[in-house]
Amino acid sequence: MITIKTKDDIRILREGGRRHAAVMRKLAEHVRPGLQTRELDELAVRLIKEFDTDNSGDQSSLLGFKPKGARRPYPASICVSVNEEVVHGIPTENNRVLQEGDIVSIDFGLKHKNLFTDMAVTVQVGQIEAKLAILIETTKKALMAGIKAAKGGKKILDIATAVELVGRGAGVGIVEDLVGHGVGYGVHEEPNVPNYTSGIRDERVVLQPGMTIAIEPMFDLGGKEVFQSDDDYTIITADGLPSAHFEHTVLITKGSAEILTS
């Protein structure tokens, strides 16, 4: 069911999104060669508490979350996905040491006063190849194009079209097995918000003021095919080529969408 948030909900989501973005900014600044991915998870836990200035009980919405079809709850507070890992890399179990030239995606949800925001960024580790820098910039550009298209009265199809146009124009691969989604009262809500237009399920859904959705392009340097690793969570490109991921939670209004995790 698609949900419309109240004025009080939106006030809480704005504050949660502000804190969420502050934590993410610090995590991204911490990325460097030699850093272990589990250190990012540990830092995220500390930062969430640090930015919870009124003791609201803020926490990661991922730790202990069990998506539909999963065999076990997610065992970390954030997702850290390196290079060929598209999303949902488990930093506490699949600890990796970041190397010069890597790219790393950080993704997590924040629960603030029982309402949820979602956000992801991809960060370079030291100096990276030009093609990786272009991949990161293209994915970020696609996110902003999707947000620009997310106006009240428009449709999910408009978002998908805007994101896809950026990806196709740059010649990158668009991951189709994973999509954006509604968010707010839960970690994942309806509708789906895909990054492509062919055969999507919720294309005719009209965007209504008060909806909150997570738009999240996932592009790579190869094809669209991915697979799930044996840890039940990490999604990896089938051809082993690097992937980038950006995400914001946005509020649909009568005009331009408001980025809650800006």
Overview of the molecule:
The chain is an alpha+beta fold. The chain has four helices and 15 strands. It has one domain: Creatinase/methionine aminopeptidase superfamily (Creatine Amidinohydrolase). Helix content is 28%, strand content 23%. The strands form four sheets. The chain has a five-stranded antiparallel beta sheet. Strands 1, 2, 4 and 5 form a four-stranded antiparallel beta sheet that branches. A hairpin with a 6-residue loop joins strand 11 and strand 12. Helix 3 runs antiparallel to helix 4.
Keywords:
single chain; 262 residues; alpha+beta; Creatine Amidinohydrolase; five-stranded antiparallel beta sheet; four-stranded antiparallel beta sheet; 15 strands
The first-to-last residue Cα distance is: 26 Å
Radius of gyration: 17 Å
The total count of helices amounts to 4
The third-level CATH topology is Creatine Amidinohydrolase
Shape label: globular
Q: What is the average of the pLDDT values? A: 97
Helix share bin: 25-40%
- Which architecture would the CATH scheme give at its second level? Alpha-Beta Complex
Q: What is the CATH class? A: Alpha Beta
User: Could you give a short account of the major beta sheet?
Assistant: 5 strands, antiparallel
Q: How much strand content do the residues show?
A: 15-25%
Domain count: the total is 1
The total of beta strands comes to 15
Spatial strand arrangement across the major sheet = 8-7-9-14-15
What structural category characterises the helix and strand content? alpha+beta
- List unreliable stretches of 5+ residues: none
